[in-house]
Amino acid sequence: MARFLIVEARFYEHLNDMLIDGARGALDAAGHDIEVLTVPGALEIPGAIALAAESGRYDGFVAIGVVIRGETYHFEIVAGESARGIMALTMDGIAIGNGILTVENEQQALVRADKAQKNKGGEAAQAALALLALQEKFA
């Protein structure tokens, strides 16, 4: 049994709850232990994962959040930099599934977060599981 940390940027609570439910479902089905950590926003997710990874208490991570395009350039910064930070950590060998939705509107987010539709939380957990399996294969 591995230990996973779901790190969520809890800005859109109802959407995050759906994403976390999907991630939990995938990790529970695989028989793993799960904790959830909440951070202020998507930009803080990579930093929180880096700190948690340094602790050695977790085997893998799932990043959860929702970034909806607004009227300013802020969307591009948050979407791009959170993805860049997660990718950098992944390239350092940390098993992370990226479940941060970057969408145009709430309706797109609802479809992607819903377990009965696109289940992006579950897909992010599956990605983390796949990367953990690769770590074990190449260890």
Task: Furnish the topology, listing elements before pairings.
Elements: E1 3-9, H1 13-29, E2 33-39, H2 45-55, E3 60-68, H3 74-91, E4 96-103, H4 106-113, H5 120-138
Helix pairs in contact: 1-4, 1-5, 2-3
Identify the notable features of this structure and list them briefly.
single chain; 139 residues; alpha/beta; 5 helices; 22% strand; globular
Query: Whole-number radius of gyration?
Result: 14 Å
Shape, per Cα inertia axes? globular
Category by helix and strand content:
alpha/beta
Helices, by number, come to: 5
Beta-strand residue fraction:
15-25%
Percentage of residues in helical conformation: 40-55%
Major sheet details: 4 strands, parallel
Question: Numbering strands along the chain, what is their spatial order in the largest sheet?
Answer: 2-1-3-4
Strands, count: 4
The average pLDDT value, as a whole number, equals 97
* H and E order: EHEHEHEHH
Describe the protein's architecture and organization.
It is a single chain. By secondary structure, the chain is α/β, with parallel strands linked by helices. Helix content is 53%, strand content 22%. The protein has helices at 13-29, 45-55, 74-91, 106-113, 120-138; strands at residues 3-9, 33-39, 60-68, 96-103. It is globular and about 45 Å long. The model has no long low-confidence stretch (mean pLDDT 97).
